[in-house]
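Hallway conversation turned thread

IA: we were arguing at lunch whether anyone had actually written out Ubiquitin carboxyl-terminal hydrolase 25 end to end. Turns out nobody had. So, for the record, here is the sequence (793 residues) and right after it the structure tokens. Reply here if something looks off.
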Amino acid sequence: MFGQYPLQVNGFKDLHECLEAAMVEGEIESLHSENSGKSGQEHWFTELPPVLTFELSRFEFNQALGRPEKIHNKLEFPPVLYLDRYMHKNRETTRIKRDEIKRLKEYLTVLQQRLERYLSYGSGPKRFPLVDVLQYALEFASSKPVCTSPIEDLSTSAVPSGPLSTHAIPSTVEQQGPSTETQSAAPTQRSVIHKPFTQSRIPPDLPMHPAPRHITEEELSVLEGCLHRWRKEVENDTRDLQESIARIQRTIELMYSDKSMLQVPYRLHAVLVHEGQANAGHYWAYIFDSYQQRWMKYNDISVTKSTWEELERDSFGGYRNASAYCLMYINDKEPLFIQEEFNKDTGHMIFGLDTLPPDLRDFVKEDNKRFEKELEEWDAQLSLKAQQEKISPVPRVPMSSTTQEPEYLEQPSTADFSKQLKEDSIRAITKAFTEQEDKNPETIMHMNSHNDPIGTAPNQKVVEVTIPDIGTYVVESEEGGYDDEVMLTPNMQGIIMAIGKATHIYDRCGPEAGFFQAIKFEYARLLKLAQEDTPPERDYRLHHAIVYFIQNQAPKKIIERTLLEQFADHNLSFDERCRNVMKVAQAKLQMIKPDEVNMEDYEWWHQEYINFRETTIYLMVGLEHFQKRNFKEALLYLICAYHKNKELSANGLYRGHDEELISHYRRECLLKLNECAAAQFESGDDQQVNKGLEIMNELIVPCLPLLLVDETEEKDIVAVEDMRNRWCSYLGQEMEPNLQEKLTDFLPKLLDCSTEIKSFNDSPKLPSYSTNELCERFARIMLSLSRTPADGR
């Protein structure tokens, strides 16, 4: 079924030369190399298997360096390989053709040597084509001769020096008279200033190129005629030799092209490629899809369409460190591989599993069943996710006073209200809701300023507090009972506004009615915030846990209890109205029965919100470091953000942040660090090289499985390939032995194709932020990202 044959590569041009060297008796010379292959005896195929696999030996041991090395020579192989010349039945014909090829090669060698004499003419170390030598001689002879002597020109135009200059100066002194004789004696002792670019200037009439000095017209005519004739003869001889060589090479190539030697075709089906050196590298494969009639490239978890041109570029070798090391050919006439089979009884075409042997067919069927089950589970998950995306994140709740409330929101807590008071309260709530719906918070909070002021208890503390979006108030609270940081949170601001809007109900019907109205106002506000489509810099989930719960469809009991706890916060005790509302809320909390709210679910949802805040902090700090170009620190925070966000997003669409955003900046950090590490390695300095490899080993390599584990993230896979190619490009380059050794030790780690997540060090320390500070910093960083274009995001 299968045949496996090792072949030597070094010294051969194509696959046929490798096969000839392996099967022919004696020494077989390569057409394109001085190397040769030896075989003890002739080898012939009596019968060929359906599948032929050729193992190309591209490695040899370097005795000088004491280690194996890869052979990067170019080796061509055809898409269709005809093996007739290697068949035992064709041995006589093949021997005749081999003898003819041998004779032609000997003659070819003689012609190539003769051609070399024309192309490399001369006896010295530098040689030139004879045609060019004759052309240069013709150009020199035809140059215009120069009649004047350069030496004479220089002697007449040179500036006088030496004794001449000393005589010229005294003559000037004598004309000046005796009064200046002493003063002018000094200039006669000055040295003459040498000006090379003025005193040694070449006369303008000298030629700019060499030319013969004396030549007659008759001599020039005879010489030009000879040189023209010789040049023409050399051109003709060179062209004849080149044409003869090309004709002989073509004859050798077509020696086996007659029809009788094209009866056993084998089509190339797969090529295995290795990129790198003998001790490290990366592997991928090209496989031909006979149904779609195209080549497919299988590179790790990536499967892409390819072409024969790309296969040639990656597989032939000679251009870079990538080359084929294994070729698989299949019999092009074998029905099992290229034709459909037909049932002998029914005459119907059989294909696919029916063409396999029974035992293999049963195994494939079982494996297919398991795979189909996995696909069904995957489709179900995708369908559920799609439904969650289509469903509105927050169903609108009718804002009616007659909405059915749980028992702990209906029954009085501590006050013994009569039935009539309860009915009056309901009517008052409905009326007040209509009256106050359109009033802004500032107006509501400052309403009833004419009412009697509330007295301050002796044990209370009076302070003035400025609350954003609300105003400045005189706050009365018990000693140690007021936390200004809590009071400034968005949650507390909303509760204060809700209590202010419910002032009329509170004054008419008492604290419990005021509490009912305030909690309805607040829930309606949070519901509206949850339904808004806001940009990332204004994420209301960070402001309010209840918005997070509503968007993620938390149970209604969880939302109600959370809202009650916010109204029951002791920081609301800064005036009598708020204290009374707070006490009502605390009483309602005590009325909740154990079976009404599942506390395990309650704690789980609040822990989910804590995880969301931690994810936000990791993301925010990571992006801040990225903008400051602290890529090491940014990568650690973004990795934690990605992991936590992945866990959150698995439970719902609105549980976390934009996964593509985190992936983009995590990927950018890795690429930046890879560039930095590569630059340090290229510097050659031991300290810098060690720092670069430390970055790769401690940060980049552990992160590669994180990028490869998700097959749908094509950008991550491309980034990994870019990083690997950058380091593989150093293979084959000249470098110091110690650098080569370090690169050899490091590359297997980088080229490890496993997707097993490697452990990191402890997560970076998580800073603590108040709600206001977190919201402000997150809004600032997200707003800056929106102004900066992110390519590929």
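OS: looked through it. The two ends are 50 Å apart (CA to CA).
IA: good, adding that to the notes. Residues 217-253 form the longest helix (37 residues).
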